[in-house]
Design brief:
Layout lengths: L1 H34 L7 H16 L9 H15 L17 H12 L4 H8 L3 H17 L16
Length: about 160
């Protein structure tokens, strides 16, 4: 009986490692955008991602068809929202001039391409509030000059 459990745990670990190998780069970039840190040196983003991946791994067997990337991104956003006060202030990142809430909405909507309704549900806000926050964040970014290094999914805001 113990041998079977070891085999299953080994399979689970390999499956999770393959997921991390494929998704960690994009998730780290998302975390760095959220924390407002430059991607090259983002210790807060790395801690945020590590905690989110640990939570995903703990729930790995219970995902049952759920996309692990979506699950981890949701956990990443929720952890960031709970600790947003730590990520306020200029850290030198592309989105550092935005408030944590504006960064969260902008990253989820434009960079990750999450639908407005999903973003609203994740944050516990009405969809029109998410739309207003996004509009304000985009206006702030446009008024402060070009943002180098930020690739956004422009189709994500189409209504």
């Amino acid at each position: 009986m113990g041998d079977r459990r070891t085999v299953v745990q080994g399979y689970r670990a390999r499956e999770f490692e393959a997921f991390v190998a494929g998704a960690a780069g994009r998730l780290l970039h998302t975390a760095a955008l959220l924390t407002g840190e430059p991607p090259a040196a983002a210790p807060g983003a790395r801690r945020l991602l590590t905690a989110s991946l640990a939570r995903t791994y703990a729930r790995w067997d219970r995902l049952r068809g759920e996309d692990p990337y979506d699950r981890t991104r949701t956990e990443l956003a929720a952890r960031f929202a709970r600790s947003a006060w730590r990520h306020h202030g200029d850290r030198g990142g592309v989105l550092a001039r935005l408030t944590p809430q504006e960064r969260l909405v902008l990253v989820l909507r434009l960079y990750e391409g999450v639908a407005e309704e999903q973003t609203a549900a994740l944050l516990g806000l009405p969809a029109d509030r998410v739309r207003a926050i996004l509009t304000r964040a985009v206006a702030t970014m446009r008024s402060s000059g070009p943002a180098r290094g930020l690739r956004l999914n422009r189709g994500a805001v189409a209504r």
